[in-house]
Specification:
Distance between the termini: 17 Å
Mean pLDDT: 92
Radius of gyration: 18 Å
Low-confidence stretches: 242-255
Oligomer: single chain
Structural class: alpha+beta
Strand content: 25-35%
Helix content: 25-40%
Number of strands: 13
Number of helices: 6
Length: 255
């Protein structure tokens, strides 16, 4: 499709005006960043894989009646989405201790939590996306109490879906983060899942071996990031189970 006006460029995606009012085009880049963009690289094929994986997950949410911004995939790197006002929070759902939680609390990575724990960080790259309590969120007007109740309910529904899908292909959903958007139908406002769901925004470990299949591969120099994401896509059926993958060639994505 013809390139339209750029709305926003982030670390992993670029947003453009959509072809119709109330829509945007989300373009997935090959850029990878970690540690608040202190570590950077270009990983060939990463954007293509994340586009297809996010499409898979968002369609799964739609099938379960969980509202989200995804409309359809346009090509290998772009998808058409509903435009929304992003709540300035990252919503983090943790099923096992890992990453910053392990460092903060001294809990060994991989320790199963007594229940899913939801944390919130304020979206501000200059501040390093600091964790914030619900009291701050409501006091500063980033979201209302009703919004927070709805966000928690959405996050737990997403967690139930993702955990089940991943378990079915031998992957442990350690944690993930999502963003939430506001959309209006006339005077009625509702909250929807926005941004993306991909190995960039999840921690995914092989159940048997503990092998990491997410962005920690890049953060911790554990191997080839594209190979890790390709394995997730293959298990979920986004990639064929034979042919190019089995032969060790560059994978071909199913249309």
């Amino acid at each position: 499709m013809a390139r339209r006006k750029k709305i926003y460029e982030g670390k992993a995606k670029t947003l453009y005006e959509g072809p119709e009012p109330g829509t945007i085009v989300q373009y997935f880049k090959d850029d990878a960043t970690a540690f608040n963009a202190e570590k950077r690289a270009t990983i060939e094929g990463k954007g293509v894989l994340n586009n297809r994986l996010s499409e898979f997950f968002m369609n799964g949410l739609t099938n379960l009646g969980i509202p989200n911004h995804f409309i359809r995939r346009l090509n290998m790197r772009e998808q058409l989405c509903r435009q929304c006002e992003i709540v300035p929070l990252e919503v983090i759902v943790r099923n096992y201790a890992a990453g910053s939680m392990s460092k903060r609390l001294g809990i060994e990575e991989g320790t199963r939590l007594p229940r899913p724990i939801i944390e919130f960080s304020y979206k501000d790259d200059a501040l390093g996306d600091p964790l914030v309590p619900e009291e701050y969120i409501i006091a500063f007007g980033w979201a209302s109490q009703q919004d927070m109740d709805d966000i928690v309910a959405l996050a737990l529904r997403v967690n139930d879906y993702l955990s089940g899908v991943m378990y079915g292909v031998g992957i442990k959903l350690v944690d993930f983060k999502i963003e939430i958007g506001r959309v209006w139908d006339g005077d009625f406002m509702r909250l929807i899942v926005a941004d993306e769901i991909s190995p960039d925004s999840c921690r995914l470990w092989d159940i048997e071996s503990g092998q990491k299949l997410d962005k920690d591969v890049f953060r911790r120099d554990l191997g080839n990031l594209t190979d890790a994401y390709t394995e997730v896509a293959r298990r979920l059926g986004v990639l064929p189970t034979n042919g190019p993958v089995a032969n060790g060639d560059k994978p071909t994505l199913i249309n």
